[in-house]
Amino acid sequence: MNKARQNPLNAVAAHGALILYTLIALFPVFVILINSFKTRKAIFREPLALPDADSFSMIGYETVMKQGDFFLYFQNSLIVTVVSLFFILLFGAMAAFALSEYRFRGNTLMGLYLALGIMIPIRIGTVAILDLMVQTGLVNTLMALILVYTAQGLPLAVFILSEFMRQVSEDLKNAGRIDGLSEYTIFFRLVLPLVRPAMATVAVFNMIPIWNDLWFPLILAPAEETKTLTLGSQVFIGQFVTDWNAVLSALSLAILPVMILYVIFSRQLIRGITSGAVK
């Protein structure tokens, strides 16, 4: 009887904690969105109030479209994010398949070496990375950002995907080998479709840091033609005067793609996170 009474209470407490965390996480997004449609005075006078007939203004979005090449910044961010995710998922899945499927000398050591990339921030090597990009002539190119983000995301991708690939049935892979399928065909046609939830999880975990990053675009690609959306938004922040309408509008436009992609892949993300916990 006590267990029966405790279970509903535990469920209510857990859901209450999750709802509270969700509200806390969404509150800054809500404040940015509502203030992007208000006048400068209304932003500082009533920052938490919804825009009304007196405070409503689209001046921020008009400024973003007129000043600064917003569509170029958006295009650069989109190219860097999509290409980086493609390489992370491709190379990460191939490395994870090799580590989980084949037993060779140094297999465990290789896994531990890749795990170090999760524990050691890549920004520690910023000076060495910048020097390498200067020597190879990749400064102020999108390829510099793509290479850095790919290297940054591979350790986590290999760590997550290798655990999921170990759960793929050996009988299925052996049946493919008996039918004459090559290892590449087994990988692309049999294994990858079964680990799609894990790949969606890896994609979401890497997409947000890449899309929101300011550090490496500022250091490796500060030229006007290679600015990303996050770096391009900084043109509205001055030393003495800041155009908060434009800043909030630019941030709102930068948030939307991430939220849309998250909604699209949310089911796969949840499946990827929970499938390893439920047998």
UniProtKB/TrEMBL annotation:
Principal subcellular localization: membrane
Alphabetized UniProt keyword annotations: Cell membrane, Membrane, Transmembrane, Transmembrane helix, Transport
CDD domains registered for this protein in UniProt: TM_PBP2
Statement: the UniProt record of this protein carries the keyword rRNA processing: no
Membrane topology type: Multi-pass membrane protein
Listed transmembrane segments: 12-34, 78-99, 111-130, 142-165, 186-208, 246-265
PANTHER family linked: DIACETYLCHITOBIOSE UPTAKE SYSTEM PERMEASE PROTEIN NGCG, MALTOSE TRANSPORT SYSTEM PERMEASE-RELATED
Family named by the database record: Belongs to the binding-protein-dependent transport system permease family.
Protein name listed in UniProt: Carbohydrate ABC transporter membrane protein 2, CUT1 family
Organism listed in the record: Roseibium denhamense
Lineage: Bacteria, Pseudomonadati, Pseudomonadota, Alphaproteobacteria, Hyphomicrobiales
